[in-house]
Write a structure and sequence with these properties.
It contains 13 helices and twelve strands. It is an alpha/beta fold. It folds into two domains: 241 residues, 3-Layer(aba) Sandwich (Aspartate Aminotransferase, domain 2); 136 residues, Alpha-Beta Complex (Aspartate Aminotransferase, domain 1), CATH 3.90.1150.10. The strands form two sheets. It has a seven-stranded mixed β-sheet with strand order 1-7-6-5-4-2-3, with helices on both faces. A five-stranded mixed β-sheet has the order 8-9-12-11-10, with helices on one face.
């Protein structure tokens, strides 16, 4: 059968066949445990904590189909996915290479928790492949990057990262949350493991917290064994909501790509805005890479105002459509100041080294009218200049 488009996979992949009781929508299996024949391996026993109820399996099959992977595993949060994946490929005495600008939670885990487990790291510039070999050690086991970085929207040499990992026998991991499978499918580009905070675009409705690990069957088996012990399983009702949310993923992201481009161009041309970070803008340092690698530029924008942190806070208070909240990827536009939310756990020195200013504003573009959002941004910016 010919490969199906992602719009079709989002609707049909992972659905039970035959339909359970004839129901078009797969039901919620609100049962903690299932009848066991006594011959199962421990990790195959049907039990919520072992991540293998019918709801877990349905949503995992849909995720794997969307990214063109062998298998997928859903977790209780994005951080549960990230930590489980890293600890499934790293052990005490190992070394990992990580990108120099990461989500604050990931940064904290790598810099604070991994060292306590005897795992070391070095930072690489994902845009400079010539500098990576110098960071390699005999103990290096993995390399970790983000498709579009949080919160500066950098796009590194992603194909080169995957090739570098294969050349040196490393496991390549990438956080694909900001891009979603609509804009980038890491497995097709040679990555071993793709990670998501499903709280964001995959679910898309700001009503659950979830994560996902996507990759080969062998790597996912190891990740599942770790997750079974860590206990970061997703509730069946949350699985159901995620499964439902993914059906409209392609439509939502297409709209968000388009609207974000319009808003980024508006902000870029406004004299009250000092700098805009969006890979769809021609002057973005990763623009040419983004055009080559991505099917869409994403719904995330960050920008800095001329007036700094004081004006940033005043600007947030004057907005009427975007909601001031620290997440992203929902149908409603959300706006936040990363230094006070997603990256607050980093020290001021660490944020400065990563290029995250105290006045940086991050905007997650929803599915509202672009004209209405631009009018709201314009009114808030204009009020600062009065």
């Amino acid at each position: 059968m010919a490969k199906r488009h992602i719009e079709t996979e989002a609707v049909h992949a992972g659905e039970p066949t035959p339909r359970i009781g004839g129901a078009v929508v797969a039901p919620i299996f609100q049962s903690a445990m299932y009848v066991d024949d006594g011959d199962s391996d421990y990790h195959d026993i049907r039990y919520i904590r072992l991540n293998n109820t019918p709801n877990h399996e349905a949503v995992a099959a849909k995720l794997a189909a969307l990214e063109g992977a062998d298998a997928a595993l859903v977790t209780a949060s994005g951080m549960a996915a990230i930590t489980t994946a890293l600890l499934s490929v790293l052990s005490s005495g190992d070394h990992v290479l990580v990108q120099n600008c990461l989500y604050g939670g990931t940064h904290g885990f790598v810099t604070q928790d991994l060292p306590r487990l005897g795992i070391e790291h070095d930072v690489i510039d994902a845009c400079d492949p010539s500098s990576w070999d110098a960071k390699l050690r005999e103990s290096t086991r993995a390399v970790y990057v983000e498709t579009i970085t949080n919160p500066l929207m950098q796009v590194g040499e992603l194909d080169e990262v995957a090739a570098f990992a294969k050349r040196h026998g490393l496991v390549s991991l990438i956080d694909n949350t900001f891009a979603s499978p609509v804009n980038f499918r890491p497995i097709e580009h040679g990555y071993d493991i793709s990670l998501h905070s499903c709280t964001k675009y995959l679910n898309g409705h700001s009503d659950i917290v979830a994560g996902a690990i996507v990759g080969s069957s062998a790597l996912l088996l190891e990740a599942k064994r770790r997750l079974d012990h860590f206990g970061g399983s997703l509730d069946p009702h949350a699985c159901f909501l995620l499964h439902r949310g993914m059906k409209t993923l392609a439509l939502r992201v297409e709209r968000q790509n388009e609207t974000a481009g319009e808003l980024a161009r508006f902000l870029h041309g406004h004299d009250g805005v000092r700098r805009v970070h969006y890979p769809g803008l021609p002057d973005h340092p990763g623009h040419s890479r983004a055009r080559t690698l991505l099917d869409g530029m994403g719904g995330m924008i960050s920008f800095e105002l001329e007036g700094g942190p004081g004006d940033a806070n005043a600007f947030l208070r004057r907005l009427t459509l975007p909601i001031v909240a620290p997440s992203l990827g929902g149908v409603e536009s959300l706006v936040t100041r990363p230094a006070a939310t997603s990256h607050k756990g980093m020290s001021p020195e660490e944020r400065e080294a990563s290029g995250i200013s105290d006045g940086l504003i991050r905007l997650s573009v929803g599915i509202e009218s672009a004209d209405d959002l631009i009018a709201d941004l314009d009114a808030a910016l204009s009020s600062l200049q009065e």
